Amino acid sequence: MDDVPGRVLILTGPPGSGKTTIARLVAARLDRAVHVESDAFFHFIEAGFIEPWRTEAHEQNQVVMGIVGEVASGYAKAGYPTIVEGILVPGWFYEPLRDRLQRDDLQVTTAILRPSPAISVMRARERSSNPLTDPAVVEQVGRGFEELGSLERLVIDNEAEGPDATAETVFDLWTSPT
User: What is the pLDDT of residues 135-173, one digit of tens each?
Assistant: First the structure.
């Protein structure tokens, strides 16, 4: 897999679904890999920041996802298997990012982690204080992962599985021949 340029994994799910942990475990299975934490790109906005789950953040969200796509594309085209991880809600963040990567003829695989809402809230609350520990916000954002239509086939219910088993499932999905 390391010698196959142009592979990108989009790893998403609601807050508390284990995305960062799984991305790190999957990356550790490779000789070289890049882990792009897309949520971090919102923190670069020093003035005029709008919480990304708010409707009025649409323009900001498009800008940020475009930049995330540019970064991920750059690494992938340079030959680094690249994991883009974050709360990439379908209908808001996911499609613009996926489409941006596909325009560069990159091989894009998607995995959506989705434990139960109660587990997501519990895990998110165990973190340091930020808006994504507020149960109401976690539940609001989590609803964006409930009815996924054609994307439902990409869901991995990782509530009962431990991190290592989930990482193995995601890694196998990403590295299987297309």
Answer: 777 788 888 888 899 999 999 988 888 899 999 999 999
The mean of the pLDDT values for the chain is 88
Share of the chain above pLDDT 70, in %: 92
Architecture, CATH, for domain 7-175: 3-Layer(aba) Sandwich (3.40)
What whole-number distance in Å separates Cα of residue 67 and Cα of residue 102? 15
Burial environment of residue 77 by CB neighbours within 10 A (0 to 12, 13 to 18, 19 or more): middle
List the domain boundaries for the chain.
7-175
The larger pLDDT score, comparing residue 37 to residue 116, is at 37
Q: Which of 134, 76, 84, 69 is nearest to 107 (CA)?
A: 76
Secondary element (H or E) of residue 59? helix 58-77
Count CB atoms within 10 A of the CB of residue 6: 18
CA angle 18, 22, 25 (to 5 degrees): 150
Residue 135: how many other CB atoms lie within 10 Å: 15
**3-class DSSP assignment, residue 99:** helix
